[in-house]
Amino acid sequence: MADAKSLAQISNEAFRDEIDRGMQSFTSERFIDFSKKPHVKVYVAEAEREVVGFLILTEGNIETPAQIHLIAVMKNFGGKGIGKKLVKNAIEHVKVIGRKKVKLFTRPWNVAMSKVCIDLGFVPEAYLRGEFLDADIILYSAFSK
Ligand SMILES: CC(C)(COP(=O)(O)OP(=O)(O)OC[C@H]1O[C@@H](n2cnc3c(N)ncnc32)[C@H](O)[C@@H]1OP(=O)(O)O)[C@@H](O)C(=O)NCCC(=O)NCCS
Questions:
Q1: Domain that holds residue 132
Q2: What is the pLDDT of residues 4-18, one digit of tens each?
Q3: Number of helices and strands (H, E) in the chain?
């Protein structure tokens, strides 16, 4: 709860391009709502006693896979492995709860996120044209044995 304001600030900065395209901007209330939902995990990354990143995971159910809905790291803390660590934690949790698949969507031009996905064993499953805010996205998924 105490981190919600930081998460909204980080998101509004990290997703500036998408907000400029028409995506709704982020508020602390939205993060508080996320944190109260059943089967939603919010991972918060701290560095130098500051909130510097986060990841939101929905656990899925017998019918649908787990999904990483949102992940962001503050620009000046990027490239230090924080994003990968957040995704690794989410994958571990997905395994623990017995889910076989975790998916996420990202932009084809998002080099940092694509690198995180590929390095952690995600595979590109689909290229969806004009899927989000009239622009393309890629579906990446990771599977546990
Ligand atoms: C995507 C994001 C979460 C990654 O977080 P991060 O903490 O920087 O990630 P990591 O440091 O673990 O890994 C990033 C990797 O991409 C590499 N990278 C980053 N930008 C790059 C670029 N422009 N070209 C090539 N490689 C790049 C980094 O060097 C690193 O690789 P390495 O581990 O081999 O050094 C972060 O960039 C971010 O918040 N972006 C804005 C929000 C966003 O796009 N979220 C994802 C939407 S699905």
A1: 4-143
A2: 999 999 999 999 999
A3: 5, 6
